[in-house]
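User: Reviewer 2 asked us to show a designed sequence for the structure in our supplementary figure. I'm pasting the structure tokens here. Could you produce the per-position amino acids so we can include them in the response letter?
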């Protein structure tokens, strides 16, 4: 067999999805749903997840397969517990209760940064509780990542035209009004890095902080913005996809897990049935592994895949749990 046909075979082997074995479902408290993103603190505690009623929960493990989510904090500075607790997704009340989406810790300070769909970039102190709003005046903040060296927070505004409650309209549009921003906690300054993005939905820095990746859910690609070096302040295409990428998370060995949804049919709102996948990329944008998440999410969309302590964790806007899973070997 020639090297060429070996390579072709290898390519098909890598790109055909293998199944992921569901280990556990970490259930959210009653009524609330939508752990869209996950984070772990510097002591390995978590996962922390946002939810439909504006609260952020921390998973309190009491055994290898047992535990429960306990309230940690919230992302709306004007949240009213009596009015908001138990609220479901896409309620107009979320404009007051908050809708935490992207999460990420600064591991030096143990502060939790949150991209709240309605309240922009906020942070929660190391003991949880109430948020401090850092960048308001955003239409639909979604994803973020904290540079582990500098503490700079990179975050996305998914659209300048549609709010989170208008997600269905956004998904059926050709909107490209999204942006990538950076927030520097040392100066309290915010700068727009990229604009004209088609529903940016995920953000990840590289391990050395030299570039930032931003996914485009409607654009079906991942762009790379160079922070340092010869190409600083320019961007290029990291990868083009066949499906719609949501969150992107750096793995411990400087690879990236991307939650990817391939649409299967016409939309019953808010999102049509999908084939949900976790796709692992190397630092050069090559696909290394594709996992089918049928066991974890059926035909619902997956919003995040993250590797932590050698296990994979999944988030979804539509599930009432965070999934814990591992590839079949
Ligand atoms: C990850 O591993 C560390 C060290 O073994 C442990 O303390 C921590 O509880 C683990 N976290 C999770 C979420 O498994
Ligand atoms: C976590 O679980 C332990 C053991 O059940 C319990 O003692 C502790 O109070 C829980 N922590 C919180 C914050 O609920
Ligand atoms: C967004 O949704 C709200 C109701 O939730 C509606 O009043 C508004 O017109 C929608 N905006 C757009 C741009 O679709
Ligand atoms: C940071 O800047 C925002 C406006 O961009 C302002 O509202 C806020 O008070 C500032 N915070 C600090 C600590 O200076
Ligand atoms: C990138 O652009 C910013 C803002 O215009 C500027 O302050 C910075 O010096 C530029 N960096 C490089 C390496 O050119």
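Assistant: Here is a per-position design you can include in the supplement:
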């Amino acid at each position: 067999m020639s090297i060429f046909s070996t390579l072709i075979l290898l390519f098909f082997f890598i790109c055909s999805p293998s199944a992921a074995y569901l280990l556990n479902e970490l259930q959210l408290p009653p009524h609330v749903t939508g752990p869209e993103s996950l984070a772990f603190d510097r002591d390995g505690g978590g996962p922390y997840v946002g939810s439909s009623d504006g609260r952020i929960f921390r998973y309190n493990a009491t055994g290898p397969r047992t535990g429960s989510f306990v309230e940690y904090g919230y992302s709306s500075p004007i949240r009213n517990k009596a009015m908001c607790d138990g609220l479901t997704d896409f309620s107009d009340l979320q404009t007051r209760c908050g809708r935490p989406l992207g999460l990420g810790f600064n591991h030096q300070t143990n502060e939790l940064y949150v991209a709240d769909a309605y309240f922009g970039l906020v942070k929660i102190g190391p003991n949880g509780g109430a948020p401090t709003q850092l960048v308001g005046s955003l239409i639909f903040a979604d994803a973020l990542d904290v540079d582990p060296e500098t503490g700079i927070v990179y975050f996305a505004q998914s659209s300048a035209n549609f709010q989170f409650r208008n997600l269905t309209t956004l998904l059926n549009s050709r909107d490209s009004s999204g942006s990538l921003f950076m927030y520097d906690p040392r100066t309290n300054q915010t700068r727009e890095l990229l604009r004209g993005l088609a529903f940016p939905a995920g953000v990840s820095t590289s391990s050395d902080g030299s570039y930032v990746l931003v996914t485009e859910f409607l654009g079906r690609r991942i762009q790379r913005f160079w922070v340092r070096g010869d190409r600083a302040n320019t961007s290029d295409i990291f990868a083009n996809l066949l499906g719609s990428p949501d969150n992107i998370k750096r793995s411990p060995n400087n690879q990236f897990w991307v939650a990817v949804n391939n649409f299967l049919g016409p939309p019953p709102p808010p999102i049509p049935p999908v084939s949900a996948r976790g796709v692992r990329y190397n630092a050069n944008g090559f696909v290394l592994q594709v996992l089918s998440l049928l066991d974890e999410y059926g035909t619902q969309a997956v919003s995040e895949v993250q590797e932590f302590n050698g296990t994979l964790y999944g988030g979804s806007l539509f599930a009432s749990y965070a999934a814990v899973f591992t590839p079949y070997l």
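For the response letter, you might also mention the following. Residues 3-327 form a domain with the Neuraminidase fold (CATH 2.120.10.30). The first strand starts at residue 18 and ends at 27.
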